[in-house]
Fold each of these.
Amino acid sequence: MNRDEAKNILLLYRPGTADAEDPQIAEALAVAKRDRELTDWLEEHCARQETLRAKFRQIPVPPGLKGQIISEQAARDRISSWRRNGIFAVTAVVAGLVVLASLWFTRQRTDDTFAIYRSRMAKIAELGYRMDLATNNPEQIRAYLAQRSAPADYALPAPLEKTTTTGCAVENWRGAKVSMVCFRTGRPLAPGQSSDLWLFVIDRAAVKDAPAAGAPRFAQVNNLMTATWTEGDRLYVLGTEGDEAALRQYL
C-alpha cells in the first residue's frame, strides 16, 4: 500500500472508534507510522474529526424529537408540515456547524501552529527516528548541525549541559530545519532505545504563535511531558517520559 492509497483509506478513519480494527485501516495506519509526511497529515485529520465531534455534541436536541421519530416510523404518511420544517431546521443547523467547524479548523491550522509543531516533535521522539549522527561529544553535534544549516547556536540550561548526549538528527518543519539533540538520563532504557530525553530547536519565526520569552511552559503531549521556552530567536521543546518534576531537573 503506497501513501496515496493509505491516505484515501484514512479519510474514513475516525479516531477513538472501532475503525482501527478494520484490516484495511489497520494497514493504512501502519503505513502512516512509517511515513512522517503521512503521519503529519493523519494528525491534522484526527484533529478535524475531534473538532467536528465537539461541535456536534453542542447541538441541542429539540424537545419531543424522540417521540417524533417514533411517530413517524409508525405513520410516515401522516407527517405534518411542522415536523418536516423541524427536521429541515435541524439539518440546516448541522450543515452550518460542519461548515463553521471546517472554517474554524482551517483558521487554527493556519494561525495556531505551535501546538501542532510541539505535537509533531513529540511524535518523532515517540514513534522512532534515525539519528543522523551518534556521538556523546556535544561539539561534534554542534558542528554536524551547523554543516547542515540547522540551529547549532542553541543555549542549554546548566543541568542539561551536563547530561550525556547520544547523538542528533535534522528534522523539518514546513520548510524550516529543526535540530534534534538526543540525551540519555541514566534511567533504564527499553530494548533498542538509545535516548530518553530529546531537545528540539528551531528558529522561533518559523513557528506561528510561538510563546514569548519567559519561564518554561509544561504540557503533557501524548506520552511525553514537554517543556517549551524561547530564548533569543530560538524556540526550544524538551521532552521525556514522566511528570513535570522529572523534566524540571534538566532546566
Amino acid sequence: MPPKYAAIWDMDGTLVDTAELHFQAWVEVCRENGRDFTRADFAATFGRRNPEILTYLFGDRLSAEQAVELGDRKEELYRAAARSGVALLPGAGELMADLHRRGVAQAIGSSAPRANLELILELTGIGRYLGAVVGMEDTTRGKPDPQVFEVAAQRLGVPAERCVVFEDAVAGVQAARAGGMRCVAVTFVAHHPAEKLLAAGADRLVASLAELDGSAVLALLEGAVE
C-alpha cells in the first residue's frame, strides 16, 4: 500500500541554516570573476537553481560550459565549508522522526545540487526518514515553478492534495501552492518576512519547527482532503 500522506522538505533555511556558507561561496566565485556579490544579490537569488543565479549575476556573458564550471566551483567552496559541521534547526529532527513513526512519507525537494544534499544528509543523519531526494539535477525549472515538489510527490507515490511542503522562502511557498499542496512556512532563519510568506499562500506560519508535532501536521493534511 502506498503511503496516504507525504511531507516534502526544502533543505536550506528550513532543515538547516547554511545561508552564510552559500553567501561566502558566492562572494568568492564572483570575486574571482570580477564581480561583487552583495547581500542584496543574495536576497534576490537565495533558493534558486544555479543556472538562474548565474544568469542573474552575469547575464549572457557566460557560455554554457563556463556556467557549469562556475556553478561547480561555488558548490565545491560551499561543501568544503559545510564539512566543518552543519546542525539541524530546532525541532527538525524530532518532527521528521514523529512523521516517520506515523507512516507519513517524506522527501527532500530542493534547488540545491545533489552532492550538497547528500552531504547534509550524511552530516545530519536524516536520510533514514526519506523516501526520495529531489535536487537541481532532477528539474529543469526552479521555484516558484512547482516541478521540484511535483517530482518528489510522484516518487513517493502520493497525490499533491495529500502533500504538505515545509519552506522558508516566498518562491517555495508559491511553488507548493502552484502544485496544489499545503504549505507550512518557517521563519526561524528570517530570510523572508512573515507577512510575505502568508501572502504567498502559506497555510500555517511557525517561528520554529519545534512548534509542531506529527499530529498537527496530520490535522493540516486531513483538513485539506475532507
Amino acid sequence: MLKADTGVKPARWQRGLDLLASLPDADWHRQQELDLRMALGRALFATKGYAAPAAGETLARARALAEQLDRSDCLGPLLYGQWLFHVNRLELKLALSFAERLERIGEAHDDDGLLLLGHLVHGISRMNLGDFVAARVLFERCHRLDDPAHRAVYAEIAMADPHHQMLKFLGSTLTWLGYIDQGRARLNQALKDARQHGHLYTLAFVLSYEGWFESATRSPQEIQRHAEEAVALSTEHDFPLMLAHGIVTRGWALTALEQAHEGLALITKGLSMNRATGAVVHHRCS
C-alpha cells in the first residue's frame, strides 16, 4: 500500500476502479479491485481523514474481497484500517471488536508484528473507553514495535508509525493515571523520536495531538509552538485531520494564555473541521 508521504491523491486509484468496472468479472478482476481499494483507502485516510465515509466503504468492500479470495495476508491491514475508521467515529465497541480480531489473527498466524499492532489498537480502544489500567498494560506490551523488521511492515499498513503512537498514548495514559513525570518522559520521547524518524505524517500526528492530551505535562507556550508547527506541516502536505487537531490545540493554548476570544474561535473552527472529516472521537476531550 501507498506511504502517506508520497503525495498520490485518491483520484488516481478511483480512476483505476472506474476502468476496472467496465471489464468482465473474474478472479483476476476481483484481485485487482482488492489491490486498488487497499491503496485508495489509505490515500483517503491521508487526504480526507480517518473517519471519511468513502474510506469506510472502500475498506469494507476490500475486506469482503479479501475473504472471498482467501487473501489472509490482506486481512491484517484491512482490519487495522477498519479499526481506525470506527474508533474515529466514536463507534468504540465496534472498533474494539476489530482490535481483538487483529490480535487473534496475529496469534493464529504466529505473526509477532500483527500481534503487537493488535495490542496497540486494543490499548487505544481501552483508553478511549476510559479503562486506563488495561490500556497501560497493553501499551507496555508493545515496546518491540520499534523492531526494524516490524517497522518495515507497519510502513505499509499504518498512517502514523505505531511505535510513536504507542509512546504518545502510553504517555497520555500514565498522565491520566497520575504518573505525571513518567507520562512526560514518554511524550517527550515520542516527539524526539518522531523528528528523528523523518516521516512527515507521523510528526504531524505527534505534534497535532498536544492539546488533546498534554495540558498536564507542558506549558501553554510550548503547546502553542508545537500546534503552530503541526498546522504549518499539515497545511503544506494536505493532512486535513491533523490540521483540524492542530488548530484546536492552538486555540486551547491561546485560551490558557488568556487570549480567550481568539482561542475559542480557533477551537470552534478546528472542531468543525474535525467533524467535517466524519471524526467525533476527540470532541469530548476538548
Amino acid sequence: MRAAIVAIGSELLGTERLDTNSLRLTAALDRHGVELRKKAVLGDSEEEIAAEIKSLLTRVDLVLVTGGLGPTADDVTRQGVAAALGRGLSLDPEVLSGIEQRFRAYARRMPEVNRRQAEVIDGAVVLPNGSGTAPGLRLDLRQAGGDAAIFLFPGVPHELEEMIAAQLEPWLAARSGGIARQSVTLKIAGLPESVVEEQIASAYEEFGRESITILAGAGEIKLIATAAGPEAERAVLLAAMEERLAALAGDTVYTRNADDTLEKVVGDLLRQAGATVATAESCTGGLLAQRLTGIAGSSDYFLGGVVTYTHAEKTRLLGVPAELLAEHGAVSEPVARAMAAGACRAFGTAYGAGITGVAGPGGGSAEKPVGTVHIALASADGRMAHRRYRFPGDRERVRWFASQLALEMLRRLLLGNPGSVEALWK
C-alpha cells in the first residue's frame, strides 16, 4: 500500500501547536510495511480539505486524516471529505445516542452543537472512540486504480492512540499479512551523539548502516535497530542487533524498552534496592523532584525535596554553612555537596541529590558562565559524588539537562557496577 497522512487544524499552521499525531500514524504504517508518500498539514478549510483528498486519491491507496471532528463551527473535516467524494452527510441516531450517554455518565447536559459529531458521511463505517465524543469514520472506496480507503480520526492524541490500536492496526494487519518491520530501542543518557557513534560503529559493518539509527535528544540518545522480512528471520536478526548494540554501549544503556523514561528506571532501581532518596534543588526549581514523583508508586522511594533559591534558605533548610557559601558562592562544588548531604540528613534517606547552577539567561560570569551546573550525590554512610557540567541552550534546556544528568548519576550509583560507581564516588 501507498499512504498519505493529513493533519487538520489551523492551529497546526501557527507556532503554538505541533502535529505529533502524524508520528504515531507513521509508526503504525511502518510496522506493516506501508509506504508513506506524503504528509500534509491543512487549516480548517472545507475547500482545502476537499482539494487535498481529491488529489491524494489519485496517488495513494490509503489516506489517514486526523483532526477537525469536534463540535465547533471550525471542525469541517467531515464536510470537506464528503465534498471530495461527492457524498452527503446525515445524522446517525445510534452515534448521537452514544454521545448523549457519554455526557450523562459525567452528569452533564450535552450542548446542542455536539450533534454535529453524530453526522456520518454516506456509506462510512463508524469507528468507536472509547475516550472521546468524536467517533472516527472509515470510507472504503473502489477506484479505477484499485481499492482505496480513508480513515478519519479525532485529533486528541490519547484518543488517536487508542483508535490506532483498536481500529487501524487490525485493518492494516488483515491487508499486510501482519507486522512487516520491527524495531528495538536502546536508550542512553548523558553522552554526546558522537561518543555513542564511536562506541557502536562496528555494528554498522555487521548489520548495515541503514538498519541502525542514532537519534539525539536533550540529554538522551536513542539507538534504534530495525529489521524487516519474515517473522522468524526478523526476530533472529533483531535480537542479534539488540545484543550487539548493548554489548558495545555497555552500561551506558539505561533501558531497552522504548517506553521507559530515565526516572522510571531510577525508581525501579531504588525500589529493588529498598533505598530512598531526597532532593535539594536550586537552578532546577524542583524539576528533579517532579520527574521522580511523576512515576506511579514513587512514594516507595521518594521522601521529599526542597527548593532553596537563596543563601539563607540553603543554610536554614539544608544546613549549608554560611561561610561555605561566602567563600565559594552558591554555584560551586562544595555547596552542591553540602546540599546533597543536607537533603539526605533532613529526610533521613539513603541518598540525597543536590543541584545548583546558572540556568540563565543572565547571572553568568567568566568563572561561572551560563549553563554551569554542579550536581552532587550523598549517601547516608558519608560517601559523596560530584560532577560539574556546562550545558548548552536556553534556561529550559539547561534545567532539563541538569535533571537528566542527576538521574543518570543516581542510576549508575544504584547499578552496583564497580566500573560505573567508582568513577563517581570521591
